[in-house]
Amino acid sequence: LPGLHIFAITLALEVSVGKTNTVMALNNSNVLLPCVFTTCIGFQDLVFSWYFNTTELIYQGKIKNKATEPTPIWHNPRVEFVGSTTKKDNNISIVLNGVEFSDAGKYTCHVKNPKERNAQHNATIFLTVVHKMVETDNTVTLIIVGVVGGLIGLLILFMLIKRVVLFIIKKTQDGKKECLVSSSGNDNTENGLAGSKAEQKAPPKA
Questions:
Q1: What's the pTM value of the predicted model, to 2 decimals?
Q2: For bias kind Polar residues, which ranges apply (predicted)?
């Protein structure tokens, strides 16, 4: 049925940039752009690429198998590979050296695995470059309770706690997925599976 999640056991390539997809860097510093991939049936001659603003290739590497480290095919001189695939995580992270304001934008980590019928998947990070770092104040919740007062403040606090609990439950469930990969309409998959491109809409009811 349209709108339902597609479950795939054989094609289970997944690419992740971690819990948040935004990174803030100080002008003229070096910044880590994290990326890992997972695959249930392993990989052979896997190719991974990093793109800036969708089209500009800044790093490309190839990994023969799990027992070998990645070898670079091409890279921008300012980009340094810092990952490893022989350890526990299939880490294909890079470091961008000497960050400038013009480097702000979208960075895409793309993986193609011939062993999974050339399955492809990607994940995106948004980089912001700033003049100076500003510390965030963690007392916002307490201020809300103090200023708004009474029931509304407690309600906001309850909603925040509920959101954290739901997030923890979701993460626990995600960890139990193993090789069952849920592929919905709004992810970054580009392997041509049904339901993996544009969102499917249910037909109008008569």
A1: 0.62
A2: 181-191
